[in-house]
TrEMBL record, chain A:
This is 3-methyl-2-oxobutanoate dehydrogenase (2-methylpropanoyl-transferring). The keyword Oxidoreductase applies. CDD domains: TPP_PYR_E1-PDHc-beta_like. The keyword Oxidoreductase applies. Residues 11-186 form the Transketolase-like pyrimidine-binding domain. It comes from Zhihengliuella salsuginis. It is an enzyme of class 1 (oxidoreductase). Keywords: Oxidoreductase, Pyruvate.
From TrEMBL, chain B:
PANTHER family: 2-OXOISOVALERATE DEHYDROGENASE SUBUNIT ALPHA, MITOCHONDRIAL. The keyword Oxidoreductase applies. Transmembrane segments: none annotated. CDD domains: TPP_E1_PDC_ADC_BCADC. This is Pyruvate dehydrogenase E1 component alpha subunit. Residues 52-315 form the Dehydrogenase E1 component domain. Keywords: Oxidoreductase, Pyruvate, Thiamine pyrophosphate. Gene3D superfamilies: 3.40.50.970.
Length: 343, 374
């Protein structure tokens, strides 16, 4: 089965991943898609819509209801030479599989001195803002980024989502692929014929150029960061937005180059702050370009709490105003913490 | 009758679930089960019927409230009223129940304040009631996790020398989860006084039950050495009798029991689900014929009870619960922002204190100090 590589079309982020999975299934018959409800239903977010119909129930498998089972059997399939792409239905349901991911998927190459590859892709819709009950809005990326042996990525737009899922599947390392679920319906131009080698899976990208402040983020908050840049521009502040795309490893070169230019950096993510990605970025930038920093790095993040009930999530999630307040802090303009003991 | 008799006669998982009231209302005899129902006269059955009508009304009312935007989500239990009410009415007040998200019929029987049932689905808080107030944990969303909690609770009862039981409610999908299998192992090892009540409603979202189990689910218990019963889950008398058998065993030191209640999820998985994508109308129609409510109406009719009488009583109660639900929703206050930081820890936490303080100052930017002492 071959897939026509059409030109550019307008796709939602969810559909762009679907098309990426389609290409991967068509191009390599060792690729399998597995997970709860991924078959007939097409997944609860419809990301695998139509794939079982096209590739059959032997390649697009509805799994029994057990995440450890899904990932653990994917490990066995990988031993046998397959490339499983597993779906975890929601962020908060990955923990039953945590043991298999951390103790097996991540460590097998090292344990076997490179003799065994685990080219798994673990897709996880993540993040909040969709008004859901507990366990449906979490941002657990730091657990995985902290685990040696895993690559962790998160696309922010349809084109990246499409290319990155194909790159993740092709990658011989296990990749945890975090999908920004509240952006599934965002539309964008997607070129399915793009050279997959052009921009590596691990590359960060400057998505808006600016000169006063560097704003670093990924996944669902990239869209918010673009709004921040526009709003700040109205106030005469030039914000450079960097979409990390890869969370492990982090491509620090463009981030460092930007901070050397601006001297001011705000980092934002939905996940809690303590020992989160922002901490790693702030520490690394401090090591790499301390003398170029005009102000301490500022982190605007979710609070260090269990994800709150949906009526409170607007407080927890960094939004335009909270990130602008962070921009004001690094710009030494009036902000929520000025005029008092900030520490 | 001795417990051994019950064990040998009733605890065999046959593929035909045990049924006391057929869909057409015919009363079937079953010595072991009937022996558990000596006190259940026609008035008691009529009361159970009223409960089921009330529970169905809660379900339809909540579904409406979701459609009207008052609730973010609702997991309907339509079709599972008999399994839930029958089993819950077998419990003592001091037994302790651990359920999934779908057991609102159980919560009703435990005496939950109706508006507390909606809190979590409106998104006002992550749970609605005090578990110790009605001896029922709040709804568990992580599939199967509560089966271990019930087992541990039951281990505690045994350590304390109590005669209470713990009951775990879960679905057919949950049977695959590691947690459930671990719970069965622990319960058997410790002979914990726990009842595993599995509602096989045939679907786990879009996945049919045979994806989870190639044998009747009740049979799974056998390998763990746990006695099991397979019942018609749309038959409230079977659910009541089976749960009483299990509870009696638990209280008398006989350890765990596994009950599979064979029922059907007549609604969508939740209000966000579209079951037409994965299941046939014919299957639904077939199960409509086995409705748990109509068969009891038929049964009571054959018993010579005035159908109009108990229907009217049921209608009254249903109207009453519906009104309470609506009133509860309209008077429910939105949570204040400071609630975000509450109850993360029992004791002072310096990091979180700082976060709360800073967010309070941020709120002040907007001239709002609602909810915050910060
Ligand atoms: C650990 C975990 N994985 C996945 C889910 C998503 N999910 C919610 S309900 C459900 C199906 C549950 O089916 P079943 O156990 O039969 O209970 P039912 O919904 O039929 O009452 C799934 C997969 C979850 N809540 N928790
Ligand atoms: Mg089910």
């Amino acid at each position: 089965m071959t897939t026509q590589t059409t030109g550019t079309s307008t796709l939602t982020l969810g559909k762009s991943i679907n098309r990426g999975l389609h290409h991967a299934l068509a191009d390599d018959d060792k690729v399998l898609v597995m997970g709860e409800d991924v078959g007939k239903l097409g997944g609860v977010f419809r990301v695998t819509d139509g794939l079982q119909q096209e590739f059959g129930p032997e390649r697009v498998l509805d799994s029994p209801l057990a995440e450890s089972g899904i990932v653990g059997t994917a490990v066995g399939l990988a031993y046998r030479g397959f490339r499983p792409v597993v779906e975890i239905q929601f962020d908060g349901f990955v923990y039953p599989a945590f043991d298999q991911i951390v103790s097996q998927v991540a460590k097998l190459r090292y344990r076997t001195q490179g003799r065994v590859s685990m080219p798994l892709t673990i897709r996880i819709p993540f993040g909040g803002g969709i008004g859901s009950p507990e366990h449906h809005s979490e941002s657990p990326e730091a657990y995985f980024a902290h685990t040696a042996g895993l690559r962790v990525v998160s696309p922010s737009n349809p084109q990246d989502a499409h290319v990155m899922i194909r790159q993740a599947i092709a990658c011989d390392d296990p990749v945890v692929y975090f999908e920004p679920k509240r952006r599934y319906h965002e539309k964008g131009e997607v070129d399915e014929g793009v050279d997959l080698g052009a921009l590596p899976l691990g590359a960060a990208q400057v998505v808006v150029a600016g000169s006063d402040v560097t704003l670093v983020t990924y996944g669902p908050l990239v869209k918010t960061a673009l709004d921040v840049a526009a709003a700040a521009a109205d106030e005469g502040v030039s914000v450079e937005v960097i979409d990390l795309r890869s969370l492990s490893p982090i491509d620090f070169a463009p981030v460092e180059a930007s901070v050397r230019k601006t001297g001011r950096v705000v980092i934002t993510h939905e996940a809690g702050q303590f020992a989160g990605l922002g901490a790693e970025i702030a520490a690394s930038l401090t090591e790499r370009c301390f003398y170029h920093l005009e102000q301490p790095p500022v982190r605007i993040t979710g609070f260090d709490i269990p994800y709150p009930p949906s009526k409170l999530e607007q407080h927890h999630l960094p939004d335009l105003d909270r990130i602008l307040d962070g921009v004001d802090r690094v710009m030494e303009r009036t902000n929520s913490l000025s005029g008092g003991a900030a520490c | 009758m001795s417990r051994e008799d019950v064990l040998t006669a009733a605890d065999t998982a046959s593929s035909e679930p045990i049924q006391l009231v057929a869909p057409d209302g015919t009363r079937r005899r079953h010595a072991e089960f009937d022996a558990m129902l000596a006190d259940v006269n026609d008035d008691v059955v009529a009361d159970l019927y009223v409960d089921m009508v009330a529970v169905r009304r809660i379900d339809t009312e909540a579904t409406h409230l979701q459609r009207q935007g008052e609730l973010a989500l609702w997991p309907p239990l339509l079709g599972q009223e008999a399994a839930q009410v029958g089993s819950a009415r077998a419990l003592r007040e001091d037994d302790f129940v651990f359920t999934s998200y779908r057991e609102n019929g159980v919560a009703y029987c435990r005496g939950v304040d109706l508006e507390d049932m909606l809190t979590v689905w409106r998104g006002n808080a992550s749970s609605g009631w005090d578990p110790y107030g009605i001896n029922m944990a709040t709804p568990q969303i992580i599939i199967g996790a509560q089966t271990l909690h019930a087992t541990g609770y039951a281990m505690g009862v045994k350590l304390d020398g109590g005669d209470q039981a713990a009951v775990a409610y879960f679905g057919d999908g949950a049977i695959t989860q590691g947690d459930v299998n671990e719970a069965l192992g622990f319960a058997a090892s410790y002979q914990a006084p726990v009842v595993f009540f599995c509602q096989n409603n045939h679907w786990a979202i879009s996945e049919p039950v045979d994806l989870q189990s190639r044998v009747p689910i009740a049979q799974r218990a056998e390998g763990f050495g746990i006695p099991h019963l397979r019942i018609d889950g749309n038959d409230i008398l079977a659910a009541l009798a089976a749960t009483r058998i299990a509870l009696e065993r638990a209280r008398s030191g006989g350890g765990p029991t596994f009950i599979e209640a064979v029922t059907y999820r007549m609604g969508p998985h939740t209000t966000a689900d579209d079951p037409t994508r994965y299941r046939d109308q014919a299957e639904l129609d077939e199960w409509k014929e086995k409705d748990p409510l109509t068969r009891i109406e038929e049964y009571l009719h054959t018993r010579g009870m005035a159908v109009d009488g108990f229907r009217e009583a049921a209608q009254h109660r249903a109207d009453d619960v519906a009104e309470k639900l609506r009133r509860g929703i309209t008077t429910m206050a939105d949570p204040e922002w400071a609630a975000v930081f509450e109850n993360v820890y029992a004791e002072d936490h310096s990091w979180l204190n700082r976060q709360r303080e800073q967010y309070g100052r941020y709120q002040n930017l907007f001239g709002s100090d609602a909810g915050g002492e910060a």
